[in-house]
Amino acid sequence: MDIHLPAQALQLTVRTQMKNIIAVLMLAAALALSLQAQDKSTPKSASTKQPTKPEDLSVYYKSWEPSEIKKCNTYSGQRWLLICDADDLNWPESLYRQVGRNAGSGLSESESYENAFTHTRANSKHFLVGFSEQPWPAPHEGRKLALWKCTKTTKISCKLMGRE
Questions:
Q1: How far is residue 152's CA from residue 65's CA, in Å, rounded to a whole number?
Q2: What is the pLDDT of residues 71-98, one digit of tens each?
Q3: What is the rounded distance in angstroms from the CA atom of residue 136 to the CA atom of residue 79?
Q4: Which of 46, 50, 75, 81 is deepest in the core (most CB within 10 A)?
Q5: What pLDDT, on a 0 to 100 scale, did the predictor assign at position 143?
């Protein structure tokens, strides 16, 4: 069965299709311009690869000899806190020993860490600290940490070793 449309109906169909194509192209162009304008007007968040300006932080550590390089950690959800010597099991007040004691007393893992963070913050010293990159990891789920090699002079400078 052949369907024959009059020439005038075919012209209307072609015209309608052309109008639709032009409308879609105009909409796509407007959307592209809008996204480009939004990208320029919205400040980008600080790149994780850019050094940070030194900030006043609570720094928790056992002791720190001149020119000693320390292994330190920053944790998601614990902004303004740098914890060094966290894994020194010979130091009864190290973060991991505190977490272990808290867990041994029946606290959950989350409660154990929160209590240990509260203790470290209360017993820390304040220093200007600069990092080679954004220091606080963004958690996707659970607690995340970043590992740093830090040196102390008049301020503390930390270079990223890795992220968990």
A1: 9
A2: 999 998 898 999 999 999 899 999 999 9
A3: 7
A4: 75
A5: 76
The single-letter DSSP state of residue 78 is -
- What is the number of residues in the chain? 164
Token pair for 62:
């056992």
| Phi, psi at 154, each rounded to 5° | -75, -20
Q: What is the pTM of this model?
A: 0.67
Q: Give the 3-state secondary structure of the chain.
A: CCCCCCHHHHHHHHHHHHHHHHHHHHHHHHHHHHHHHHHHHCCCCCCCCCCCCCEEEEEECCCCCCCCEEEEEEECCCCCEEEECCCCCCCCCCHHHHHHHHHHCCCCHHHHHHHHHHHHHHCCEEEEEEECCCCCCCCCCCCCEEEEEEEECCCEEEEEEEEC
CA distance 27 to 20: 10
For 15, phi then psi, to 5°, come to: -60, -45
How many C-alpha atoms does 42 have within 13 Å on its Cβ side? 8
31-43 pLDDT, tens per residue? 333 334 333 333 3
